[in-house]
TrEMBL record:
<dbReference type="Pfam" id="PF00179">
    <property type="entry name" value="UQ_con"/>
</dbReference>
<protein>
    <recommendedName>
        <fullName>UBC core domain-containing protein</fullName>
    </recommendedName>
</protein>
<feature type="domain" description="UBC core">
    <location>
        <begin position="1"/>
        <end position="79"/>
    </location>
</feature>
<dbReference type="InterPro" id="IPR000608">
    <property type="entry name" value="UBC"/>
</dbReference>
<dbReference type="InterPro" id="IPR016135">
    <property type="entry name" value="UBQ-conjugating_enzyme/RWD"/>
</dbReference>
């Protein structure tokens, strides 16, 4: 498909979207809410649904060591902001 045809189809889709959604697209949640959610997950992981089994076992069996490693990782990979 040529670039002109693709752009034309995208333009048609945008027009249809605007017609059906007159106020335009709006996110259901904000970036701040996403970041706070991530922070909450890091502060209080859900042990009923672990994403990483090693971290889960450490969190459950040795919470002091878990916190120590989290702090170590934070120092090793500081924020770029």
């Amino acid at each position: 498909m040529s670039g002109g045809i693709a752009r034309g189809r995208l333009a048609e889709e945008r027009k249809a979207w605007r017609k059906n959604h007159p106020h335009g697209w709006r996110p259901a949640i904000t970036v701040k809410q996403i970041l706070v959610g991530i922070q909450d997950l890091l502060d209080q992981p859900n042990p009923a649904d672990p994403a990483q089994t090693d971290g889960y076992h450490l969190f459950i069996q040795e919470p002091i060591e878990y916190k120590k490693r989290v702090r170590q990782q934070a120092r090793q990979y500081p924020s770029l902001v």
